[in-house]
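Page 37, continued from 36.
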């Protein structure tokens, strides 16, 4: 102890006491009774009150932020970029629909509304006959065009909305501008579908990833819908201004997406995918073609039922809340499909899921025809959304397993174009011809049953030769 006590007298100033020794003098905080003892380290000093707990609003915001980050970042950074761009695109779509709803539909008599909606639907048929082969060939020859097309489509949609605001919403220019808006929206959707496989860590996650993107789109639309309604109450142009901002966000986020050419070269396909599935480059297997037509039948019924219910309620002087209930029910059904489709995919093959979708639409149409009203119509809209979502996710999984990665872009282009054409054809029938709701629903049920029967028969005929071999 003496040596230790006097050792400090001969230690050079500024040097460490007992360097390297285990019995070096401990810091002053080890002597709580000394006057030169420092207060213990910690979040607050002794005797002070602990910090206040964050309020309910801050805790809720923090929880929501964590949930959103987990939702968007579930499948890696590339998928996060794509999902943000998709959410912004859907938000812009919702705001444009809210801003144009009064102009296109609600503010005119039923006869005039039929003429305008028929013109709008007819205009959507022409561009896809040109866009489909051009875009398919572009994607097949230049895989990197996925990202560029997605970004350019967002920029063009923002510019189109600006022209709408400038020209006014009560001019003849509104319909060609709305037509251009729809075309650019389809370009974005096709590019997203083609880009999705290379944005995933594993290509086998396509079914679940498509369902997740669908949920993200529904969430985005649900969040901006009340904001868009409030903006439209002030002025429909205000909703379009906010849509421009979302389209700009989609374009900016699209610039950060990975180059599909580099992704294909670096990652390729896992050996398990190539070994477990019959990968065919061209043409696609017959089962895939049959499933594509069956899925198009589901989409055709969706367009027919939506237009039929809309004009039935329009003729009955229904209010905007009734139309909103139909739209919300359809979205809820599609959202339910995004939850159950991955569950079904793990237990069923894709073809039975498409068969089930047709059966759901047939049953819903027959039941709604017997008990027609707002409740039955909302249930029918929900069933139609559920059927379309289930069939679409199932077809996406089938396409991903049967078509090689370098041809998925053109395959998605052909499929999405066919589905859009089917929706327009189905919607234009009740627009062009006034159909009683009960008769139309019965006809829809018969069509769904017929399509289901033909699809099952074609699948059985396709598998019999394979079983014989």
């Amino acid at each position: 102890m003496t040596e230790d006590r006097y050792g400090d007298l001969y230690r050079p100033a500024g040097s460490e006491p007992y360097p390297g020794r285990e019995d070096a003098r401990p810091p002053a905080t080890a002597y709580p009774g000394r006057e030169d003892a420092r207060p213990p380290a910690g979040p607050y000093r002794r005797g002070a009150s602990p910090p206040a707990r964050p309020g309910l609003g801050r805790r809720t915001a923090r929880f929501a932020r964590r949930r959103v980050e987990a939702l968007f970042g579930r499948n890696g950074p590339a998928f996060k970029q794509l999902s943000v761009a998709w959410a912004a695109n859907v938000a812009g779509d919702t705001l444009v629909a809210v801003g144009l709803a009064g102009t296109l539909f609600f503010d005119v008599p039923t006869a005039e509304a039929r003429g305008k909606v028929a013109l709008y639907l007819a205009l959507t048929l022409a561009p896809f006959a040109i866009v489909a082969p051009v875009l398919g060939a572009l994607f097949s020859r230049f895989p990197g065009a996925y990202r560029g097309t997605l970004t350019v489509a967002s920029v063009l949609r923002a510019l189109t909305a600006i022209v709408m605001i400038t020209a006014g919403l009560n001019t003849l220019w509104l319909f060609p501008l709305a037509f251009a808006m729809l075309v650019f929206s389809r370009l974005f959707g096709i590019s997203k579908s083609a880009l999705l496989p290379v944005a995933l860590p594993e290509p086998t996650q396509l079914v679940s990833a498509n369902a997740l993107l669908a949920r993200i789109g529904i969430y985005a639309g649900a969040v901006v819908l009340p904001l868009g309604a409030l903006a439209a109450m002030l002025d429909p142009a205000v909703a379009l201004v906010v849509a421009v901002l979302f389209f700009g966000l989609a374009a900016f986020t699209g610039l950060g997406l990975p180059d599909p050419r580099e992704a294909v070269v670096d990652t390729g396909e896992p050996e398990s995918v190539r070994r477990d599935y019959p990968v065919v480059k061209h043409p696609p297997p017959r089962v895939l073609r049959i499933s594509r037509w069956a899925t198009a039948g589901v989409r055709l019924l969706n367009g027919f039922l939506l237009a039929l219910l809309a004009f039935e309620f329009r003729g009955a002087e229904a209010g905007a809340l009734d139309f909103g209930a139909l739209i919300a029910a359809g979205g809820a059904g599609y959202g339910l499909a995004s939850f159950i489709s991955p569950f079904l995919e793990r237990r069923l093959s894709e073809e039975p899921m498409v068969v089930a979708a047709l059966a759901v639409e047939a049953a819903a149409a027959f039941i709604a025809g017997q008990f027609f009203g707002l409740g039955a119509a909302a249930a029918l809209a929900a069933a139609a959304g559920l059927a379309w979502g289930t069939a679409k996710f199932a077809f996406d999984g089938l396409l991903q397993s049967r078509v090689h990665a370098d041809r998925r872009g053109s395959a998605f282009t052909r499929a999405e174009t066919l589905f859009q054409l089917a929706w327009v054809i189905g919607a234009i029938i009740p627009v062009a011809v006034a159909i009683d709701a009960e008769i139309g629903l019965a006809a829809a049920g018969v069509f769904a049953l017929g399509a289901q029967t033909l699809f099952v028969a074609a699948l059985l005929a396709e598998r019999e030769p394979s079983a014989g071999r």
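The chain is about 75% helix and 0% strand. Flag for discussion at group meeting. The mean pLDDT is 75.
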